[in-house]
Structures are given as structure tokens and as C-alpha cells.
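task queued by scheduler; priority normal; single chain, no ligands, no partner chains; default sampling; output format set to C-alpha cells
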Amino acid sequence: MTIEDPRTGGVLAGLAWFCYRRRRVVLLAWIIGVVAVAFAGFGYGAAPDNDFSGGDSGSAKAQKLIEKHFPERQGDTLTLAIKANKGIDDPAARQKIEKTIADLADSPVTGPVVSPYQDENLVTKDHRFARTTIPLSEREVEKADVKPLVDAVKAASDDSVTLGLGGYMAEKAETPPQGPAESVGILAAAVILFIAFGSLVAMGLPIVTALLAIAAGLALTKLVGHLAPAPDFTLIFGAMIGLGVGIDYALFIVTRYKDSLQDGDEPESATVTAITTAGRAVLFAGTTVVIALLGLLFMGQQLMAGVAVATSITVLITMIAAVTLVPAFLGFTGYKINSVRLPRRASRRNRPAGPRSQEGRTLAERWADVVQRKPLVAALLAGTSLLLLAAPTLSMRLRRHLIWLVGGGR
């Protein structure tokens, strides 16, 4: 089949042609670029900024008022919440509570603690509930310093007295270390793609492309953190979104490439066709995701602004990888895109090109035919379903409710 002249096929056709024919240069440039960016980003990137002050929100203004009128409450603190079934004045309960407070006050990372037995404002009228604030020392306190306090308070609880520590550092101390969630996700995606494509090579291209793009995107996120500070969970958030869109975008192009080969195209022509069709959809979809993420900037929250910029960069890199790195990989694979096949699919390798009978079409193809025959019905059903799923957001209130145990009084 004659390959369309890239000079008349548009920018995407020219890009696909260049990446296919200069695949060694493109792949080498990607590898060198990812290594360089990873070295700079993970070596000299900005530290995470866990500023949860809230920007110009109502809760942030309330916090500023608290700091202005109650300067003694500034700094990191823990809150000890107490519930005594028989009341805190019960001798057994009082002994347990006072011992717990004394242990907290004796810790090298805490300051002086006011006992609820010394301040009636820290106790409810029925004396069944109480609280007290434990200030942390001015030096940098790590989660490893707070974890023993959390464990000690938990161990002191029983059926008659319930004790618990709250506060940012307490929550951080109880947060388990990051597990292999991303690795499990990649493995699950690999299995699904292998079953869907029936080919190990076709399965590997989207995953390798996504991983390279994510590595570059997360490293750039660390560098951009000097200009747009972001919290420590941004890398996890970026990896999650980058993995999803990265695999999807490459999957679109690889699927279109395989269809073109089946229709009788040469590998180079199939690559150009895949990029000028599926690649255009990838750019449109990716741009939509970037715009949606940047919409977080209008929340007026510095915390979310950093997340928006960082994750947008990761999505942008996956878009670029899909239309440059994937055609380079396709240049290496050629007809071998169907290599290392599942046994059940081996019999389809020599299936003749051209329209297939209804019996030979996949479930996805038959479903697409149904949607195309009844587009209005499909649109109404899909729109109604989305509106029903989104209905709970109408009652959602994005504000912080201050409960008595944390910051109130009587």
C-alpha cells in the first residue's frame, strides 16, 4: 500500500513518519531524557510542602483568627479525647486517665499538658467526655516520635474508658507505609492487556510507554515544585493518573495499528494511520484532562494548586510519549506486534483481511454497532446514568465541621 506523503498528511503524519524512520534516535533521546530528568528531579527537586492552611477558604480564615487571639495554641498539637462510661470522676477511670496524661507529659517531644481535672472547660456537663491539648515541642517532630504515644494511648483504653489521640501528627503516625499498590496495578493491567491483545509484544508497548512517561513526569513534578509547591501525596496522585492515561493512550494507538495491519497496510503506513487517527483522539483527550486538572486552580487552595500543576505535567508527558515513543516502538516491532501469542488466539493469525461476519466479531465490536445504530438512545441512557451517579454531589458541603472534642468548649 502506498504511504501517504507526510508533507501532505498534516503535522501528525509527519511526526509519525519521522518517529518511525528515526526510531533509534527517538528511543535514545527518550531514554537519555528520562534518565537526565530523573537525576535532576529526584536529586534536586523541591521538598513536599504539606501546608494545609486552606488558602482563602473559610477554614483558613478561622485558623488565622485562632492564631491571632490564641497564640498559645500555635504549633503542632495532639488532642487527647476521653470517653468514660461511668464518668471521668470514677476512681478507676480517673486513675487510668491521670496516668495516661502523665505519660504524655513526660514524653521528650511534648510540652506541658493541662489535665481536664484542672480545667472544667475541658469536660462536658455530664462528665462522661473530656479532652485536652498536648503541645508538641518546637523542634521538628517525626512520626516515629509520635507513634509510641499513639500506641500507649490505645493500650490504655478498655471497656470502661476509651482514649484516643487526634491531630495531624497522630494521623501521620498511624498511616501505614506506602504499599505496592502501583506494582499490583501494573501487573493487573499487564494481565488484562495480554488477554485482550493475545500478544506479549502488544501488551508490553503500552506499559513500557506509560512507565517511561511516568518516570519523566514525576521527576519534572519534583522540579516544578520549586515554583508550585505540592504536598507529599502528589507523586502518588500523579503516578495513579499517569499510569491510567498513559496505558490508555498507548493502547488506542496500538489497537489502531493492529487493525491497519489486518486491513493489509504495511507497518509504516499502519503507524502513520494510527497516529493520525487514534493519535488525534489521544491529544484531544489528554488536553481535556489537563484542562480539567488545571480547573483546581480556581478553588483558591494553594495545596490543590500544586497538585493540579504537577499532575497536569504528568498527563502532558504521557501525551507526548503516545505520539512519539509509541510510533518508534512500532518501527521496531513491525509485523512482530502479534508475537508470543496466547494459544487460543494462534488460530486467528492468518485470518483474511476485510469485513468480518457478525459471528466473528467481538463483543466490543457488536456493542459499538448497537450504539452507532441508536446514538440518541445511547446518549440519553449514558447521560441519565451519569446524572444519577453525580446526584449525591448536590448535597456535598466542602467545609470543615469543628466538633467539640477537637476544638470546642462547653
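post-processing summary
- The chain has a mean pLDDT of 79.
- The first strand starts at residue 77 and ends at 84.
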